[in-house]
Every structure is written in structure tokens, then in C-alpha cells.
Amino acid sequence: MHPLAQLLGRQIAVDIRALPAAARRRSSGRSQLTRCVSVADIRDLARRRVPRAVFDFVDGAAWDELTARRNRLDFGELSLLPQMLAGVADVDLSTTLLGQPVSIPLIGSPTGMAGLMHPAGEPAIAGALHRRGGIYAVSAGASYPVEEVIREAPGSTWLQLYLARDRGVVEAMIARAQACGCTALVVTIDVPRAGPRERDLRNGFTVPPRVTLPTALDAARHPRWLTEVIRNPAVLPTGPAGGAAALADFVNSQFNPAARWEDIEWFRQRWTGPLAVKGILHPKDAETAVQIGADAIMVSNHGGRQLDTAVSAIRALPAVVQAVAGDAEVYLDGGVRRGTDILKAIALGARAVMVGRPMVYGIGAGGRLGAERVVELLVEELRLAMALAGRTSLADVDDSLIGLSTGASTGSWSR
Ligand SMILES: Cc1cc2nc3c(=O)[nH]c(=O)nc-3n(C[C@H](O)[C@H](O)[C@H](O)COP(=O)(O)O)c2cc1C
Question: Ligand 1 test: best mutation among 302, 314, 354, 363, most atoms within 8 Å of CB?
Fold first, then answer.
């Protein structure tokens, strides 16, 4: 045989022998995650890996989901006006949040029941942010107790609470937050009633999950997810005594629709550490929260999961920053999927941004490694965007970076 043909034959044999390992590597969690080069890719991977009802619970929003979409689209409306030759070899993303030094301006938003996506749950999200020097605000409705979450992220865990009907329950949670070392308390004020999430209604999503023929088939089509959940049943949410209730009924049974600003004063009196108020869009509400003693305002429409057609978070931001006038820190929450989104929010006065769904997509796509990949992607995108925009530190990022707008200018954004 011709020597070249022999060589080729040998090479093909080697390749064939290596095939199973290569195929294994290709389908291994780590390599699937490495091939995800954006948060959108991570979302697609999560969608393939978890049952539809679970994905929709995370991905869905209120009514026509317009606010959720606008949270994203309004970032795109803003153009950046970069500067060149600014010596951008080193980019520093560090800052302080509520007096705490952080390496990145990133806070994981509270997301209840994240363990449904993957049993690694909130500890994996907290750990991924902690290792890169960020913060996680764990939800009181998390799949894991706050004490377990904080073990993964000592010194960088905040606790989020709702205005619940039962103040005894809230007081007990505040005491636990204090005892385990949460460094700030977040009170979410935009859920006087459950948001109308039609995907959950259509999917028959209940708390605790109810086994019906469609939900059983949905789960059976995702055997890897099913096996993981069967091995860790504790991550499944429990509902009120007496069986399954639609998610909205469950929320309405727990939260207090009669809550007023005096309830924030109640929190202020009981929690001596830094207090953040989450769910503010109107500048007047921001002023009131600051008067009561809030140390941070989280500009948020709950990821579009409450009042549909409410203003997007990035559009609401400039007026809130102006109203607060430096008396509290302001964070942007909603729609952040790219490093440029973070850059724009900081340019418009946010001290940091919060990310909700991306971290939950991360664990859905690959547990702990998935959460780490999301943080890595966002941080590296921000670092690159800063360099391309001619900025080397967050202190250099101001509204001079927001340039000619494709649609709305920030001027027309403030009322
Ligand atoms: C699955 C899920 C659960 C959530 N649970 C909570 C919660 O328990 N407490 C809260 O304040 N906000 C909750 N939120 C809202 C987030 O904190 C955040 O405001 C929102 O996700 C931000 O938008 P983004 O997902 O576009 O980043 C939840 C959001 C999602 C997607």
C-alpha cells in the first residue's frame, strides 16, 4: 500500500478509537457550558434540560410579558459613545456596596424556588458570585435555608424578605439573618398581590408540584433533571397544608396586600444593618424610602413578573438616581444579559446591577458550573466593554458614555 494511504489509515483508526471519549467530552456538562458563549446560549441550554413548566416558571412574566421584553429592549435603545487611546490594559471592576468591598458590581437577585431548576440551587448561585467577589441576595422563598446558602458565601450574602401577613414569621427570619451573618436586608415591596403569570396557569404549575399526566410526561422527557430531583426531593417547594394550590393563590395567602410605608419603618426599627428596598420605579417612592432610612434602592419591576407594561428598569433608573441625590445607593435590577447592559446602568447612575434569571438559567444549564459560567461571561463581557469604551475603572463611567440614541434619548426618558 502507498505509504500515504497507510498513514491515513492509521490516523483514521486512531480517530475512530478516540470517538467515544470525544463524544462523551462533547456531551459532558462542562464542555456544553464552555460552548455557551453568552447568557442567551445558557438560557437555551437550560430550556433543553428542564421540564417546560419549570423553565416557564423562571422565564415567564406577567400578562403579555411586555415589561420583561422592554427590560431587554430598552438597553438596546441606548447607544454608547466610546473614547479611544485611554490606556485600557488594566480594567478594575471593584467598588463598594453598602460599605462592603466587592470585586465586581454584580448582585444576584433573590429568586425563590431556584432548586426546581437544579438541586444545586441557591448555594451554587451564592458560591459562584462569592468566588468572583460579588453579592447574592437570597430569597426568603429559596429552596435552601439561608444558613446553608451563607455557608457558600460568607460575608457576601444578603437576605430578602417580603411583607408577609404573619409578622412573627418575618421577625424570626430577621433574627436568623442576624444570627448567621447576613450583611444586609432587602425588603421587596412590589408584590401586594401575585403577578398574573399566564404560562404558569396554562402549565398548571402548582406549589407543591402536582403530578398530572402532562406534568409527568414533561418530567419524563427530561430524565437527567428527573433523576437529580428524585435524588434531592428536599428542593421541591412545599405549599400550604392541605395540598396543591395555584402559585398565585399561595402567594396571596402569604403576603400582606394592606402593607404601607409604615411597614418599612417597622423593618428599619428591627434591622440595624444596611437596608435595601426592592421594587421601586417611581422617583417619589425612592424619596420616601430614603426618608425612612433605606440605604439602597433597587430599581426593579420584578423582571416584568408583576405589573405588565410597567416602565422598564433601565428607563426608570435616571429619575430615581436624580431623586435619591446620593443619599442612598441605587441598583438596577431587570433585563441585564450583557456586559454592555451593566456598563449602561452604571453610566446612568447605578452603583451595581442585579441579575435574576441569568443565574437561575445557569444552574438549570449545569448546576454549580453553570452558575459559574454565567458570572464569568458577564464579568468578562463587562471588562471587555469597559476597555472598548475607554474606561479603566467604574469611577470613570458616567453619563458622558451614553451617546446618540437610536430611539429614545435619556432626556426623554425622564418625565
Ligand atoms: C424564578 C424567579 C423567582 C423570583 N423570586 C423572587 C423572590 O423570591 N423575591 C424577590 O424579591 N424577587 C424575586 N424575583 C424577581 C427577581 O429578584 C428580579 O427582580 C428579576 O428576576 C430581575 O429581572 P431579570 O430576571 O431580568 O434579571 C424572582 C424572579 C424569578 C425569575
Answer: 302
